[in-house]
Design brief:
Helices cover 29% and strands 23% of the residues. It is of the alpha+beta class and 501 residues long. The strands form five sheets. Strands 11, 12, 13, 14, 15, 16, 17 and 18 form an eight-stranded mixed β-sheet that branches. Strands 1-10-9-8 form a four-stranded mixed β-sheet, with helices on one face. A four-stranded antiparallel β-sheet has the order 4-5-7-6, covered by helices on one side. It is globular and about 80 Å long.
C-alpha cells in the first residue's frame, strides 16, 4: 500500500505541468463585478464565466448558456447548461444569474459595469435552466453584456458588505482554473486546473503568476526562461533579443486593440474644409511612422473600427500616401510657399510615442510646404485646457478598439458637449441616424452591415487622420504546444495548450 501511494505521488510529480507568468501589480478584488484593474481582470477571467463569450473568430458563442433565442426584439431567453459545477462542487443554476444581476445593479457595490445593463427592464427565472431578460427597448448589446462573469449565490448571499468580502481574495467560480488560497499583496498567485470544467480539464495543471513590478525585470526574467509567456515591445524584439531567445520562444503578433490618430478641430477654419483634411492625409506616410516608431511592428489605420471583425468593410479602398497630389490640392486651395498652411499639433507629454509621432508628421508635412508647430503638455493640463475647452488646431491621441464597437460617444453629434468624447466637433446627420438605428438592432449581421457603412462615411469625412495600430507581441516558450493566433489574442484556446519538455 505504501509503495502504491509513493508511486502515485511520483507520477503526479512527474506529469504535473505548470506555466510561469507575471503580473505587474497585485489584484485588488478577484471578482468579475469589481475587477477594474488589469491584474484583477486577468485573474478573474480564469476563475469565472459569463453566459456567453467570444470565440476565435470574435463571434459570440455560448459559455454558461448553451443557447439563446429572441422571443421578440425586446425579450431574450437563455438556456443554461446543466453540467456546470462551482469550484466547491455546488451545481450552477438560474438562481446564480438572477443573484448576480441584482447585486450588479444594487447599491451594495460600486462598479462601472452596471451601466451596460441600463437598458434591462427585468431578469426573471423561467425554471432552473432558463432565464428571461426583458429590455426597455431593442438593444444592440442585448447578448454581449452577458459576458459579465457570474457569482455563486450560495456563497455571496451571506455577505453583508460585498465590497469588503473575503470572497474577493479567495474567489470561487466555474472557470477552467481555481485558486488554492487567498491571494497576498505582491506575492505569487497559483491557479490550479478545474477537473470538472464543462469544456474539459485544461491540459496545463497550474498557472503561476509572479509579481514583477518593473518592466525591465520582467523582460530579464523572460530572457532567462524563468517565465514561459510575456509581452515584448517593438524595441525589444528588434534590438534586444538574440538567436538563443528565438530558439527558446515562439513569437506571436497581432494588431493591438487600439489606434492613434491626428484629430482636427472641425469648428474652425481651415479644418472645417474636408479638402484641407484630405491634403494633410495625403501628406502623411503612415508606413514610415510605423517603421520609425515600432520598427515595422504595426499596421496603418484607416478607420474607427477593428480590422478583422465583422464591422470592418471587406473591400474598403483607403486613401494612400501621395505627397505630389497633396501639393497640387494645397495649391488649388490657395496655399503657396509665400502663404503656407500653418497649424499647431498638441499632444500629451507622458506618452513618448505620441510626441515622436507628432515630430515625424511635422517633418512629413514640411515636405509638402505645410508648417507645423508642436505643443507638448502634461496630461491633465492637456485635457483641461486644450481638449475639453476645444482650444486646439489638431491633437495626437488614441482610442481603444472593441470587438463590438459603440460609435455613439465618439461619433454621434450628441457627443459634442462639455466633457464629451466628440471633442473634435464631428457632425454628420447620416452617421447620427445610422448610429441610432444600429443601437436598436439585435441581429448581428444587420448591425455589422450598418457599422460598415458608418466606417466608410467617417473615413471619407476624415475628421481624424487615422494613423496606426501597433502590434501586440507575445513570446511563448517553445515547450508550450497548441498555441494559435486569433483576432481576440492567443489565449482563446488556452485549455488546449500543453507542455512538452
Amino acid at each position: 500500500m505504501y509503495k502504491i501511494l509513493l508511486f502515485l505521488l511520483l507520477q503526479s510529480f512527474i506529469f504535473a505541468t505548470s506555466i510561469e507568468r507575471s503580473i505587474s501589480s497585485s489584484p485588488n478584488r478577484i471578482n468579475p463585478l469589481l475587477a477594474t484593474d488589469s491584474a484583477s481582470s486577468e485573474i478573474s477571467n480564469w476563475i469565472f464565466n459569463g453566459l456567453v463569450k467570444f470565440n476565435k473568430e470574435a463571434k459570440i458563442v455560448g459559455d454558461l448558456a448553451k443557447e439563446w433565442r429572441f422571443e421578440n426584439n425586446r425579450t431574450l431567453i437563455f438556456t443554461l447548461r446543466d453540467n456546470i459545477l462551482w469550484h466547491d462542487g455546488i451545481k450552477f443554476s438560474s438562481e446564480d444569474v438572477i443573484f448576480t444581476y441584482n447585486l450588479l445593479i444594487s447599491k451594495k457595490i460600486t462598479t462601472p459595469y452596471s451601466s451596460d445593463f441600463k437598458e434591462v427592464k427585468s431578469v426573471i427565472i423561467v425554471d432552473k435552466d432558463h432565464i428571461k431578460v426583458t429590455y426597455k427597448k431593442p438593444y444592440f448589446k442585448a447578448i454581449s453584456i452577458w459576458m459579465q462573469g457570474i457569482l455563486p449565490k450560495h456563497l455571496w448571499e451571506k455577505e453583508k458588505n460585498p465590497m469588503q468580502s473575503s470572497l474577493n481574495k479567495f474567489a470561487i467560480g466555474t472557470g477552467p482554473y481555481k485558486m488554492t488560497k487567498p491571494f497576498e499583496v505582491n506575492k505569487k498567485i497559483t491557479l490550479i486546473s478545474n477537473s470538472k470544467y464543462h469544456e474539459g480539464e485544461p491540459k496545463i495543471d497550474k498557472i503561476n503568476y509572479h509579481y514583477i513590478g518593473d518592466s525591465s525585470t520582467d523582460f530579464l526574467m523572460l530572457k532567462s526562461k524563468k517565465l514561459d509567456i510575456g509581452g515584448l515591445t517593438p524595441l525589444q524584439i528588434s534590438r534586444q533579443i538574440d538567436s538563443s531567445f528565438k530558439k527558446a520562444f515562439n513569437i506571436y503578433e497581432r494588431a493591438s486593440n487600439g489606434y492613434t490618430y491626428l484629430g482636427f478641430n472641425l469648428r474652425k477654419a481651415p479644418f472645417n474644409n474636408v479638402k484641407i483634411r484630405e491634403a494633410i492625409a495625403l501628406s502623411i506616410d503612415k508606413q514610415e511612422l510605423i517603421n520609425l516608431l515600432f520598427f515595422s511592428h504595426g499596421k496603418p489605420c484607416y478607420g474607427p473600427f477593428m480590422p478583422g471583425t465583422s464591422v470592418y468593410p471587406k473591400n474598403f479602398k483607403p486613401l494612400k500616401y501621395n505627397p505630389k497630389k497633396a501639393k497640387e490640392l494645397l495649391k488649388k486651395l490657395g496655399y503657396t510657399k509665400e502663404h503656407p498652411l500653418e497649424f499647431t499639433i498638441t499632444t500629451n507629454s507622458n506618452n513618448d510615442i505620441r510626441v515622436k509621432a507628432a515630430e515625424i508628421i511635422q517633418q512629413q508635412l514640411l515636405k509638402v510646404g505645410v508648417k507645423v508647430k508642436i505643443r507638448v503638455m502634461e496630461w491633465q493640463a492637456f485635457l483641461n485646457t486644450v481638449v475639453f475647452p476645444k482650444k486646439f488646431d489638431a491633437v495626437v491621441l488614441g482610442w481603444g478598439l472593441g470587438l463590438i464597437p459603440d460609435a455613439y460617444s465618439i461619433w454621434h453629434s450628441d457627443g459634442d458637449k462639455k466633457g464629451g468624447f466628440n471633442f473634435v466637433g464631428y457632425h454628420n446627420k447620416r452617421v447620427d441616424n445610422l448610429i441610432q438605428k444600429a443601437s436598436s438592432i439585435v441581429d448581428a449581421k444587420e448591425f455589422a452591415r450598418i457599422y460598415r457603412d458608418i466606417f466608410k462615411i467617417i473615413a471619407e469625412d476624415k475628421p481624424y487622420i487615422f494613423l496606426y495600430i501597433p502590434n501586440s507581441i507575445s513570446a511563448v516558450s517553445k515547450r508550450v504546444k497548441g498555441v494559435t493566433t486569433s483576432v481576440i489574442g492567443i489565449e482563446h484556446n488556452f485549455i488546449n495548450w500543453r507542455i512538452e519538455n
